[in-house]
Amino acid sequence: MALRADLLPALAAFESAARHQNFAHAAEELHLTASAVSHHVRKLESRLGVALFQRHARGVSLTAEGRQLADAAGSAMADMESVVRSLRVARTEQDRVHITTLHSLTYTWLQPRLPQFAALHPHIRLTVDTEVALTRFDEGGPDLGIRHGPGHWPGLTAHHLMDDYLFPVASPSLPGVDAVRDPAQIAQLPLVSDLARQGWHDWLRAADVHGVSLEERYRFSDSTAALNAAVHGLGAALARDKIVTPYLAAGVLVRLPGPALKARWGYYVVHPAHKRLKPAARTFIDWLLALPTDDTHA
After folding, report:
1. Separation CA 101–CA 130 (nearest Å)
2. pLDDT values of the chain reduced to their tens digit, one per residue, 298 residues
3. How many beta carbons lie within 10 A of that of residue 248, not counting itself?
4. What share of the chain is helix, strand, coil (3-state, %, to 5)?
5. Rounded to an integer, what distance in angstroms lies between the CA atom of residue 123 and that of residue 132?
6. Which of 4, 44, 74, 245 is deepest in the core (most CB within 10 A)?
7. Cβ pair 51, 63 in contact under 8 A
């Protein structure tokens, strides 16, 4: 007998009843009545010409033929559930974008803008990795990254996101900061630095300040840590404009006199050149590249 589509509800009812050995429990699972489950089972028995259950006062139990069909139906249902689960996971992964980026940029620039992305694309899920170590774009790794650098990396496609600018900032409570009127006087303050390729010597040269000795009293490996040190009054810091904006807006740091020096390196969105981007990752890149960068500096 060919398996017809009209038998599928009956098979589903039988599989549940066989698993529970109880029509009422099967009915509860399937949101049916016990009599509906019984009707489906009898329809299946009539089509097959065999009894699938022995009915007695204490309930029901499978016949030998019923056990044979129950084993096959249970295996088929398990296989289908496994496929459905894998399809659902695959669909979820298609809608998830794994991003590797910088902690400092994530905290001060990216996170404040993510609500806008979520409103535009509520189905896309983001995983943001801010590990200090340079992440590899291996199989199963990030879909894309935001990097600070020269704009070219082997094996990666790079899209210019925005430029970077450096200028000095300090806490308004830092002793002596109120008296600073020109860049040369900044060199007399205790200075905070990070491990960036451009630092105080580069900025003072751009500000036309020469022949001064610098006291870099504190040095941090992370730009955010350097800014926080300035917030706590440890000294003046050379800030990156995209990172320092929320500190200036909150008034915990103030910009000191002098030019904004365009950094040799900028920010880039990167992804493996050999892999095709999934649609959700392409959507996130397009959104990033369309953001206003506010590159206006006095």
Report:
1. 5
2. 555 667 788 888 888 888 888 888 888 888 999 889 889 889 888 888 889 988 887 778 889 888 888 888 888 877 777 766 766 655 556 789 999 998 888 988 999 999 999 999 999 999 998 865 555 666 667 899 999 889 998 888 999 999 999 999 999 999 999 999 999 999 889 999 988 778 899 999 999 998 887 778 888 888 888 999 999 999 999 999 989 999 999 999 999 999 999 999 999 999 988 888 899 999 999 999 999 876 545 4
3. 14
4. 45, 20, 35
5. 29
6. 44
7. yes
Residue identified by tokens 């390729």 is 197
Among the CATH numbers 1.10.10.10, 1.25.40.10, 1.10.1470.10, 1.10.150.130, which is that of 5-94?
1.10.10.10
Q: Which two tokens mark 57? A: 């006062």
Distance separating alpha carbons of residues 131 and 133, to the nearest angstrom:
5
